[in-house]
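Input structure tokens:
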């Protein structure tokens, strides 16, 4: 069957919803397992845990819902649709979609059942406790006579313990709390109060312990742990509550510190002024010395420049003399070359004369052979001897042609020799022109040599006694000049730096003077403020003492309340803490009561403690179920009806 992306997208949406549904079913099973595992340790309380929601789980299955044969590629024959106009996952008359919706509803009902079961389990500890109390009442009703005999011996000891606890409690409460408002007597009064309460407690504690031991002896049970050996009072009041506040206020202290700081700043500024004066005198002295040294370096730079000129003039003289030598050598070479050219020209002229004489002879021979050939042409036979005549004629023509070729070669050679003569004459003229030019250059070089010698003598006169004792190379003179210039530039930079330093020192000295004036004004204002603050500090100190007294009394009341609260509670609850456990132990030992109510009540307490953790673990497991079922219901089932027809129509538009 033909398909299209729009139709395949509808099937993919169904498969995605089906996967979400199967994931929700798996998580529901895990949630039921968490509940079962969490309640398994309380199997002995099954009768008390049974509720309406405790029925067997009803988790639906995804079996029977339509699935494509090829879920990856949807290439099965009916993976998209069975009949045109209806997708395969719809089923006949949307039966498959209704089945999916029904199972989603069943899954949500199972989720509600598990949640309801957890909520109903919250009341189970109360039912267990009520059952324990009912069990106790039943046991007591069944053994009233025996219980009365046992309690006849037990109650006097219990009454005595109650009376001792009541008297100690009244004595502790009657002990007057001290007034700790005075700083000098606060700690002594506190220790006195601790000693009085501790004395009462110390005297009563052995009697109380003996009473508990007597009660336990009558009940034939172990003596339970009772009160500590001493009450946990602090030995002294905290230091911050018995330390007098600083007589001076914070403002006075700050002003005194400000005055000290200003005095230190003033001393530092005065020292800085002295140091700046010394530094300024040192800098000015160094600047004067460096200025004098700069004048000397300028003289050295000028001398180095003259030495460099002296070296360059020597180099100019050497160059002029070398140029003269080169010109003279070149002139001699050209003179010799011109003589050689002239000799070569004469030799070629003599060869031309010889070749011309030879050519004349060959021209005469050609004329003779031409006359013989002309005559032979006129003697052509009429009938016989034509072959010999032709043979002779051809031989004569060959001889004439050979003679003409030889003549032509000699004439061509004469032309070549005449060209050679012309070339040699042109070369001779060029050599003559070169010799003339070299003569002029020689005269110009001699003038330059004379000028360079004159300039060298002028430089030596300027140098005077500073003329070097030996000839220096130009590079050496340049290095001397560069060293002198660098030394002068470095000194100039140092002078500028020292001048800048001198200006900075002067500016710092002026700034220090201004700061001293400002500091004097600030000191005057601070001293005036200190006088005012000293008058106000007395009232502030009294207020601080009152505030400290209030805090000290409140801290004592809090500490005494914390220490005595446990004692008072244990004395007031003596029945619950000591008498009732001893009575129960006595009745249980005598067989009047059993441990069953106590065990049942303890199990109820354990169940109550375990339920919050069980609910948390269950919620952590099943939270994804809510999202998965919402995705199936809201994201697919609620919208697929309106998406099927457009998906089918868009698929039909595909080619």
């Amino acid at each position: 069957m033909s398909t299209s992306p729009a139709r395949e997208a509808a099937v993919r949406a169904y498969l995605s919803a089906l996967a979400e549904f199967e994931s929700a079913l798996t998580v529901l099973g895990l949630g039921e397992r968490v509940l079962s595992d969490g309640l398994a340790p309380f199997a002995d309380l099954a009768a008390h845990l049974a509720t309406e929601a405790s029925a067997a789980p009803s988790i639906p299955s995804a079996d029977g819902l339509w699935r494509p044969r090829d879920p990856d590629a949807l290439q099965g024959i009916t993976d998209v649709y069975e009949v045109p106009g209806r997708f395969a996952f719809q089923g006949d008359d949307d039966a498959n979609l209704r089945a999916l919706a029904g199972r989603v509803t069943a899954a949500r009902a199972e989720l509600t059942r598990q949640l309801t079961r957890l909520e109903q389990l919250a009341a189970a500890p109360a039912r267990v406790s009520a059952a324990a109390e009912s069990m106790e009442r039943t046991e007591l009703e069944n053994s009233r006579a025996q219980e009365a005999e046992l309690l006849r011996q037990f109650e006097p000891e219990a009454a005595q313990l109650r009376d001792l606890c009541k008297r100690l409690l009244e004595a502790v409460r009657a002990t007057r709390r001290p007034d700790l408002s005075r700083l000098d007597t606060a700690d002594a009064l506190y220790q006195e109060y601790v000693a009085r309460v501790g004395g009462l407690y110390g005297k009563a504690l052995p009697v109380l312990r003996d009473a508990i031991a007597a009660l336990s002896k009558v009940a034939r049970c172990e003596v339970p742990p009772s009160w500590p050996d001493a009450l946990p009072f602090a030995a002294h009041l905290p230091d911050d509550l018995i330390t007098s506040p600083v007589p001076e206020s914070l403002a006075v202290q700050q002003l005194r510190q400000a005055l000290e700081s200003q005095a230190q700043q003033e001393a530092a500024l005065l020292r800085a002024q002295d140091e700046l004066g010394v530094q300024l005198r040192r800098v000015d002295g160094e600047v004067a010395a460096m200025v004098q040294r700069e004048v000397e370096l300028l003289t050295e730079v000028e001398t180095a420049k003259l030495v460099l000129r002296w070296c360059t003039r020597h180099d100019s003289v050497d160059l002029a003399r070398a140029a003269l030598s080169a010109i003279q050598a070149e002139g001699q070479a050209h003179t010799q070359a011109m003589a050689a050219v002239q000799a070569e020209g004469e030799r070629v002229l003599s060869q031309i004369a010889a070749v011309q004489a030879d050519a004349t002879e060959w021209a005469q021979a050609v004329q003779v052979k031409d006359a013989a050939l002309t005559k032979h042409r006129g003697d052509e036979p009429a009938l016989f001897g034509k072959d010999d005549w032709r043979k002779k004629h051809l031989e004569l023509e060959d001889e004439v042609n050979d003679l003409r070729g030889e003549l032509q070669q000699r004439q061509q050679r004469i032309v070549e020799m005449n060209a050679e003569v012309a070339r040699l004459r042109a070369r001779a003229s060029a050599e003559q022109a070169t010799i003339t030019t070299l003569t002029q250059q020689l005269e110009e070089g001699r003038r330059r040599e004379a000028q360079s010698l004159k300039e060298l003598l002028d430089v030596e006169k300027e140098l005077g006694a500073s003329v070097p004792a030996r000839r220096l190379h130009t590079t050496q003179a340049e290095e001397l000049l560069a060293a002198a210039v660098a030394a002068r530039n470095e000194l100039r930079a140092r002078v500028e730096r020292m001048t800048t330093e001198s200006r900075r020192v002067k500016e710092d000295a002026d700034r220090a003077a201004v700061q001293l004036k400002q500091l004097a004004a600030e000191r005057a204002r601070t001293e005036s403020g200190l006088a005012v603050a000293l008058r106000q500090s007395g009232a502030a100190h009294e207020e601080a003492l009152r505030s400290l007294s209030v805090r000290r009394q409140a801290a004592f009341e809090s500490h005494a309340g914390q220490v005595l609260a446990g004692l008072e509670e244990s004395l007031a609850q003596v029945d619950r803490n000591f008498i009732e456990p001893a009575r129960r132990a006595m009745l249980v030992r005598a067989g009047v009561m059993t441990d069953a109510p106590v065990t049942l009540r303890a199990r109820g307490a354990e169940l109550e403690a375990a339920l919050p953790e069980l609910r948390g673990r269950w919620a952590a497991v099943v939270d994804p179920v809510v999202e998965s079922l919402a995705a199936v219901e809201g994201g697919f089932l609620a919208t697929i009806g309106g998406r099927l027809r457009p998906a089918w129509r868009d698929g039909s538009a595909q080619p």
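Strands lie at 81-83, 86-87. The CA atoms of residues 423 and 544 lie 132 Å apart.
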